[in-house]
Amino acid sequence: MNLPLDYKKGFKNFLNVKIELSKKPFIPREETEFWVEAAIRELKKEKKKTHCLDLFSGSGCVGIAILKNIKNSYCDFADVNRKTLEQIKINLEINNIENKRARLIKTDIFSNIKRKYDYILANPPYVAKERLPELELQVKLYEPKIAWYGRQQGMFYIEKFLKKAKSFLRKNGKIFFEFDPEQKHKIGEIFKREGYKKFKFFKDQFKKWRFAKIEY
Ligand SMILES: C[S@@+](CC[C@H](N)C(=O)[O-])C[C@H]1O[C@@H](n2cnc3c(N)ncnc32)[C@H](O)[C@@H]1O
């Protein structure tokens, strides 16, 4: 089994942003581009300065696409894996992002997050244990397991994320996050249990349920 082409090439284009992959982070996917574009459309309507959190940030593709497209925006990048933070540093430099607009945080989900945000954007690890047999061998062999494996039903991180996320949102804040189509029902139950009232599910470009937006 060969190294993924994107690792061989060493970079990936994500919404016209160059994302370098030398530290072998999770390779940005087109399904993610699709919802980040939707988030950017909303951010463009904001009148004031916006503070974003790119949680589970990996290569940094989500937050860097936002910083490149939204003038008056700031982004904190948060990930548990030190190597991804090194990768984000490289990608911020390549894309000429001013230092003051970005911060890197090593954290276990929200453990080291100390402030509230206008937007939280998250692509957590969500591949279910039960679906491991169908997972592409190339992903299993080459992309870091910590980046994609979501344990039972793939819900381990999504559940922990949703328990805490609302307490890190500013008034009128928004959350965009990605999931596997099979998780939609369970996520709906968590929304109810955790008291999220204003939320909507969306499909991706392949007509599969893929992301949710929460307003708080
Ligand atoms: C699916 S990747 C997403 C990467 C990138 N945001 C993207 O969309 O391409 C998930 C990321 O979550 C990180 N991660 C895994 N467990 C974590 C935890 N407990 N706290 C914070 N980040 C975690 C992984 O290191 C990985 O970079």
From TrEMBL:
Record keywords, A-Z: Methyltransferase, S-adenosyl-L-methionine, Transferase
EC number: 2.1.1.297
Name of the featured protein: peptide chain release factor N(5)-glutamine methyltransferase
Record-linked PANTHER family: HEMK METHYLTRANSFERASE, MTRF1L RELEASE FACTOR GLUTAMINE METHYLTRANSFERASE
GO biological process terms held by the UniProt record: methylation
A matching Pfam family: MTS
Residues covered by the Methyltransferase small domain: 41-130
Keyword S-adenosyl-L-methionine: yes
Protein species of origin: Candidatus Nealsonbacteria bacterium CG02_land_8_20_14_3_00_34_20
Class of the enzyme per the UniProt entry, highest EC level: transferase
Catalytic activity of the protein: L-glutaminyl-[peptide chain release factor] + S-adenosyl-L-methionine = N(5)-methyl-L-glutaminyl-[peptide chain release factor] + S-adenosyl-L-homocysteine + H(+)
Any one GO molecular function term: peptide chain release factor N(5)-glutamine methyltransferase activity
